[in-house]
Amino acid sequence: MTQVKTAIVIGGGIAGPVAALALHKAGITATVYEAYPSTADGIGGTFALAPNGVAALRTIGAAETVTAISTPLPRMVMSVGGKHLNMPGLADVPPLQLVHRSDLHRSLHDRAVAGGVTIEHGKRLVDTQETASGITARFADGSTATADILVGADGVRSTVRRLIDPNAAGPLYTGLLGFEAVARHEIDAEPGTMTFAFGKGGYYLYWPEPGGGTRWGINLPQERPMSLTEARAVPSSEWMRTLRATFADDDPGRDLLLTSNADELQVVGSLHIMPPVKHWHRGRMVLVGDSAHAPSNSSGQGASLAIESAVQLARCLRDLPDIPSAYATFERLRRERVEKVARRAARINQAKAPGAVARALMPLLMPLLMKIAMNPEKTLGPEQRYVIDWDAPVTSDLVHS
């Protein structure tokens, strides 16, 4: 085991609390420092946790906490040009779990605190200073914290990534802006069925909402990225007019939008992905989650991969003799897997183009979509069956898993 006894974790979203819990389990005391003044209530939309993500949560005792606030999705349907295709899943793995991002944040926050993790809010990292014996984080409010290592779990706009490598690339805008709401319109689908629709106006998805109505999410093509503050400054009635005009010729997109209340529209914000990050670690600093790898939401794996990486980092620090070998082994363990998922998602993302572009590309993209839809064993099997063996020792000669 390394001589690491204490850790600073920057970021209190998903990867941060998971990393802190996993580090505690590995015998390392971790404190989480979050820039926002409180938990992210009301921020972000709904997303799915894959079976591999839930399995990783199980290693830190958080799986039941999360599934209790989630909705299982055992059935998937792809809709192209109004034609529906049932997408077979993997019979031997649990279904996806649908959960609201803010609910997941609060759940992991509460679980971490119950597990002995200290979480400090209103702590925005601005700089670090390393010595031979530790690393000190300096925050915008003038306070500092010192520990043996610092873990950057601070998302796609990571400050830690910039401190590791000032020349590191930032997130790439996908050209899409996310929205979500619940429509009064009832679709003809069994509960627990999610439909991925490639319509004339663009890409959207929908599923029956427990308790009535239909929850939908839309990726609206948008030329320039907008911050969440900027996007939410636009009146929701104006966004709803734009969405209704864009999807006026789509069925059931048109009816979903017409029966949705503009006042209840959730602006999720601009959608980004991370290009491959050259340097995951330097000195006593290391990246986990979206700060190192944030695939397109088309992957259905962003949160799950972040959770996996947080757990795997703790295993490496538990078993390897020093920080450099622990960080290097962690990167070898994770990079190939996360970048493969990102490449798959990037190919699917091309099908989310709007209007005439989509109609021109669809004949080329349909074989890919069909391959993914009808061959889950090859496309989803390696992703969703991935289970971390916490008790297995990690060795420095490990190439990948």
Distance between the termini: 20 Å
Question: Could you say which overall geometry the principal axes of the C-alpha atoms support?
Answer: globular
Largest sheet: 7 strands, mixed
Number of helices: 13
Helix content: 25-40%
- The average pLDDT value, as a whole number, equals 89
Name the structural class: alpha/beta
Radius of gyration: 21 Å
Strand order in the sheet with the most strands: 6-5-14-15-16-13-17
Low-confidence runs: none
What's the number of extended β-strand segments?
A: 19
Beta-strand percentage range: 25-35%
Q: What would the keywords be for this entry?
A:
single chain, 401 residues, alpha/beta, seven-stranded mixed β-sheet, six-stranded mixed β-sheet, 19 strands, globular
Q: Topology, pairings included?
A:
Elements: E1 6-10, H1 15-25, E2 29-34, E3 46-49, H2 51-58, H3 63-67, E4 71-73, E5 75-80, E6 83-87, E7 96-100, H4 101-114, E8 118-121, E9 125-130, E10 135-139, E11 144-147, E12 149-152, H5 159-164, E13 172-183, E14 193-198, E15 203-208, E16 214-221, H6 228-233, H7 236-246, H8 253-258, E17 266-273, E18 281-282, E19 285-287, H9 302-319, H10 323-349, H11 355-374, H12 376-379, H13 381-384
Parallel strand pairs: 1-2, 1-12, 2-8, 5-14, 12-19
Antiparallel strand pairs: 3-7, 4-7, 5-6, 9-10, 10-11, 13-16, 13-17, 14-15, 15-16, 18-19
Helix pairs in contact: 1-4, 1-9, 2-9, 9-10
